[in-house]
Amino acid sequence: MHYNTGSHLRLTLCDIDEETLLVIDPDTVFWVLVPKGECVYSKITHDILPLYDEVKRECEEEMHDFRFTSNPGVIYMNSVSRCNLNCSYCYIPQEIRKNHQQMNKEQLFEVLMKACEYSEENGGNRKLTVVFHGSEPLLMKEEIFAAIEEFEGMLYFGIQTNGTLFREYDVEFLKKHGVSVGISLDSSYPETHDSLRKTWDGKGTFEKVVEAIDWFDGYQRLNVVTTITKQNVSQLPAMVSFLHAKNVPSVLLNPVRGTQGPARSLMPDNEILKKFFISALKRAMELTEKTGKQIIVGNFANIMVGIIAPTARKLMCDISPCGGGRCFFAIATDGNVFPCGEFIGIEESRGGNIFRNSIPDIMNSDSFERIRDRVVEKIEHCDTCAFRNICGAPCPAEVSSMQGNFYNPSPYCEFYEELIRFAFKIIAEDKVKYFLKEDALNTLGYKYRMVE
Amino acid sequence: MNKDKEEEVRKKKQSVMAYRLKCPGTANGGLTHYMFGDSPADKALF
Fold this sequence. Notes:
The complex is a heterodimer.
Chain A: E1 12-15, E2 20-25, E3 30-35, H1 40-68, E4 74-77, H2 94-98, H3 105-121, E5 129-132, H4 141-150, E6 156-161, H5 168-176, E7 180-184, H6 190-196, H7 206-216, E8 222-228, H8 236-245, E9 250-255, H9 261-264, H10 270-291, E10 296-297, H11 298-308, E11 328-331, E12 336-338, E13 352-353, H12 359-363, H13 366-372, H14 388-391, H15 396-403, H16 413-428, H17 438-443, E14 446-451
Parallel strand pairs in A: 4-5, 4-11, 5-6, 6-7, 7-8, 8-9, 9-10
Antiparallel strand pairs in A: 1-2, 2-3, 11-12, 12-13
Chain B: H1 3-13, E1 17-21
């Protein structure tokens, strides 16, 4: 057997750190970590190639199915256009957020019924998840809570909210019904959060949001979302400590997307982002080790999963093609359907209207197919990157909006590259258990395993 | 990091390592781009 000729054309070598070398097939994400002191050539010939040969086909099929199957599992309901906040980086255009439109209860129920029927038509094995999302869903709390009660058992529900409109009994209602909840908090420092997430008349929201997080008190379906900007990037480690102390089980540390113009001036520099994000990960690991109570950094956990169990990813931004118009779609107030919330307001990406078109017709629309057609193999720079099927070059809406054409790499390319390298270091050091739920990890068997 | 831990990490990094986990029931199972989804929280990896 010979590597990099004939059927072994794909193995690539790359540096992880001073001590470790990575041998990887970028297409199947088959990887082997080799200590640099070892004779790499001998290892490849005697150990790696036979294993690669054995599992290559299965990995290939698994990745292909995972990447190219189109089977929506989540609907983002942007059923109210209005928001009580005016965050400077919001991905929903300001003219939409100022516009007081919302679906009425009958329209909302009509959409949810359509979701149930779609699930039934597809064998009914998989219940769809409906996430009430931007602008601010709790502005139509009464209708949404009625929907959660009416469709319980037929759909799963989530709410992504700015957290300012909760009353304590709302929290109890959501816990009782097992609703997943995402709350936005940008800093553990009130002045930083308040400068980023404020009302239209400039008032801060920190106290109200933290009060709501306290009410959830360790609820396992709570996730805090922190949007990273130039203003809070250096505070990420402190944010992890703060949320850990508040019993928050998981946090998403999301670099702000430059899809909308006002957000671009807030995008953190890649070098600074790498430094503080990795410090935050180290902080999460220290806290977990020290206290036995975990805080998961969701977007890093997803990268880790993308390496050790690629098809178990939960977040479908860092896969190519992305989940937009494939695993999920977003519905605006007027019923217009977009591949993802990031595309709302971008007319050419509209796939139809939920009140006039069927879900299969929307999924088969040209605009959705165009998003699904964006794969890393077609992007110059990504097409030769060893990490291309771990990172996935997110996000098409952001890249298209910033560069006029979505066949370009992510503006955070260097950041993703460094995170993936860090994930491989964690694997080499056998510390994965600090970043994923250990109980769940222990229940999974190995598809293949080699440790020498 | 104390010396024992440094030694433990060094030993682990001296191994050749490759693995992939089985993910039953998650084919195309990426669920959503946020933390929501139909996977029960107690069975999810994160």
